[in-house]
């Protein structure tokens, strides 16, 4: 996967996640205040692979990385967990 | 009450020299929580947003929504949004060499709540990030063929 494709896919997903977080701030409250969110879509294995690499690099830099998993549940489309 | 009586009713008016207190815009209180969320898009692009919330979890201030590029070993802000003076505005960095920014309210959302501004700014960056990047790189004299 090229960087350009990864960027454009992550852009779209991150906007959705950001909107979800602003509406439901309590979901990420326990994780801390300074967080890096890496999105893992349910149906794109190539992006998942690229984002695992990205998340590991961020972790090495000492950042608080939160994995955002896409679910198929419409009520809770995103789930958050620590890397 | 019939209209003819209402017409002659004396209206209450404040004296001309009466001073009304000016409504102050809310300052960030110490109790407001500052939140910083970053979304890495690839290893050389990221979006970060910083905002404050009050006890009721309502957004009180958008500190910034930032679009950064990693160029020649450092993160450089291409554009960012903030609501420092009570309205949302955009700051565009002039170039890689000149880090001053141009502030504008042109084509920026003016109405709505802070939540709406925040999601609008994020979506604007989502839609136009490649355009902002292209303009920024064009304005930069340094030849940046590959973002490393």
From TrEMBL, chain A:
It comes from the Bacteria. This is Uncharacterized protein. It comes from Candidatus Daviesbacteria bacterium GW2011_GWA1_36_8. The lineage of its organism: Bacteria, Candidatus Daviesiibacteriota.
From TrEMBL, chain B:
Residues 40-141 form the DUF7718 domain. This is DUF7718 domain-containing protein. It comes from Candidatus Daviesbacteria bacterium GW2011_GWB1_36_5.
């Amino acid at each position: 996967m090229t960087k350009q494709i990864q960027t454009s896919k992550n852009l779209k997903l991150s906007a959705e996640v950001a909107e979800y977080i602003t509406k439901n701030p309590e979901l990420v409250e326990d994780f801390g205040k300074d967080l890096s969110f890496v999105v893992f879509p349910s149906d794109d294995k190539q992006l998942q692979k690229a984002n695992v690499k990205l998340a590991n690099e961020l972790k090495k830099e000492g950042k608080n990385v939160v994995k955002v998993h896409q679910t198929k549940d419409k009520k809770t489309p995103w789930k958050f967990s620590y890397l | 009450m019939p209209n003819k009586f209402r017409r002659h009713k004396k209206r209450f008016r404040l004296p001309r020299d009466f001073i009304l207190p000016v409504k102050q815009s809310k300052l960030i209180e110490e109790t407001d929580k500052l939140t910083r969320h970053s979304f890495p898009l690839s290893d050389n692009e990221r979006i970060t947003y910083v905002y404050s919330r009050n006890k009721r979890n309502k957004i009180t201030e958008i500190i910034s929504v930032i679009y950064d590029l990693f160029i020649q070993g450092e993160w450089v802000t291409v554009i960012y949004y903030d609501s420092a003076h009570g309205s949302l505005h955009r700051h565009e960095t002039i170039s890689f060499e000149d880090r001053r920014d141009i502030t504008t309210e042109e084509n920026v959302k003016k109405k709505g709540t802070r939540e709406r501004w925040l999601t609008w700014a994020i979506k604007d960056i989502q839609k136009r990030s490649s355009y902002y990047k292209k303009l920024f790189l064009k304005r930069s004299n340094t030849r940046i063929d590959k973002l490393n």
